[in-house]
Design goal:
This protein is of the alpha/beta class. It has twelve helices and 13 strands. An eight-stranded mixed beta sheet has the order 2-9-8-7-6-3-4-5, sandwiched between helices. Helix 2 packs antiparallel against helix 9 and helix 3 runs parallel beside helix 9. It binds pyridoxal-5'-phosphate (PLP). The site of pyridoxal-5'-phosphate (PLP) has 13 residues, from loops. Pyridoxal-5'-phosphate binds next to loops.
């Protein structure tokens, strides 16, 4: 078959690359040509996986955890995740509600595959993690963006949210703390969403992958703990961000048992299972010492304060102080350039790779995203370079 005749399925026609990978490729091209670039684009911890977890993974390979495991995860890891989430969320979960996958992403993808029919409406945050829209569209469902507003601390504008809900709504996606804004959806808004979920009979997918990276005294509320929500919520979490395990590929979801079985079947017939030694390392992550998570959190908090302080000193930039994750989402509207133009300019002129807010949806226009999972030295250097470049505009 020649290239012209080749035809791809309609369901993937809207798929586009993730902005972070595109900017990374552009930055690497500049580096190959000798330019120095500070990377604030890609969202992953700059720490190595904690040593006790790494060693446990190595021991697991050496002792033969190298075979297939049950598709939805080993019973030991399911048990550990159920206990961990019970403690974190303050509500009891059974191991049968747990599905383990290679990363959190499959636990976004497969539950949506199990639930969505052609034409179902799915409300998702805008700006939001790009995979949400990509997966909704791949399933043939209809993406309905709900704005996250700077004025609401980057939580939903509940009036606009309400206007988007109808009998066609099948699923609502929440991501708190959020990528790209670092914002948190508060209990009052979650209660309103929970009431609507029951009235209009929709599911909620709550992506809580940044739940341990928060900088407030209060625990981040989870919608699954509200009355009546356990039977219609998929709680997604994982090891990538909390334990610096992005490359290990380990994530999980908690959901009603019947849905968990269906998602397990989709895993059986796609990835088969998650690597056994990775799962053993996951048990160590959850049950081992948590001091390192606390340490990393305090380091991120200091870096957040450095980057927010530095950005707000640059004339024309207005940056809120996010309560979670490791991103800032400053307002750059005063420069009267599109977010894309400004982020290209910062890469080429300042040698600082950042993402355009529009990589996360139309409502990201007027903002850029910077990831502060980088050393304080690099962050401070980047701030100086950004200031110098923006002063020229
Ligand atoms: N959800 C959000 C909001 C994320 O930011 C990411 C990764 O960037 C993921 C899910 C995917 O995580 P994982 O690496 O575990 O697949």
């Amino acid at each position: 078959m020649n290239k012209k005749e080749r035809r791809f399925a309609g369901r993937i026609k809207t798929l586009v690359p993730e902005g972070a990978y595109e900017v990374l490729a552009k930055a690497q091209q500049l580096e190959a040509n000798g330019k120095k670039v500070i990377h604030l684009e890609i969202g992953q911890p700059d720490f190595q996986t904690f040593p006790n977890i790494g060693m446990e993974g190595i021991r697991a390979i050496a002792s033969g955890h190298t075979r297939y495991t049950p598709s939805a995860g080993t019973p030991d890891l399911q048990k550990e995740i159920a206990a961990y989430t019970t403690a974190r969320v303050g509500k009891g979960f059974s191991p049968r509600q747990v599905v383990v996958g290679p990363g959190a992403k499959p636990l976004l993808f497969f539950p949506m595959m199990a639930l969505l029919e052609e034409g179902d409406e799915v409300i998702y945050p805008d700006p939001g993690f790009p995979s949400y829209r990509a997966i909704i569209e791949t399933m043939g469902a209809k993406p309905i963006p709900a704005p996250l507003d700077e004025e609401h601390g980057f939580s939903f504008d509940m009036q606009q949210f309400k206007e988007r809900v109808s009998n066609h709504t099948r699923l609502v996606i929440i991501n708190s703390p959020s990528n790209p804004t670092g914002g948190i959806v508060g209990t009052k808004d979650l209660e309103k969403i929970a009431a609507m979920a029951q009235k209009y009979d929709f599911w909620v997918l709550s992506d809580e992958i940044y739940s341990r990276l928060t900088y407030t005294e209060d625990a981040v509320p989870s919608i699954i703990s509200l009355p009546g929500m356990e039977e219609r919520t998929i709680l997604v979490d994982g090891f990538s961000k909390t334990y610096a395990m992005t490359g290990w590929r380990l994530g999980y979801g908690l959901m009603p048992e019947d849905l968990a079985q269906k998602v397990g079947l989709l895993l059986t017939h796609s990835v088969g299972c998650t690597a056994g030694f990775t799962q053993v390392a996951g048990i160590e992550a959850l049950s081992g010492p948590q001091k390192q998570v606390e340490h990393v959190r305090s380091v991120f908090k200091r870096r957040r304060d450095t980057i927010v302080g530095g950005l707000n000193e640059i004339p024309g930039i207005n940056c809120q102080t996010p309560l979670g994750a490791f991103y800032v989402f400053p307002n750059i509207k005063s420069f009267r350039r599109s977010s894309e133009e400004l982020s290209d300019y910062l890469l080429n002129e300042a040698g600082v790779a950042v993402l355009s807010g529009t990589s996360f949806g139309d409502r990201g226009e007027g903002y850029i995203r910077l990831c502060y999972a980088n050393s304080t030295g690099k962050i401070t250097e980047a701030l100086g370079l950004i200031k110098k470049a923006l002063n020229k505009l």
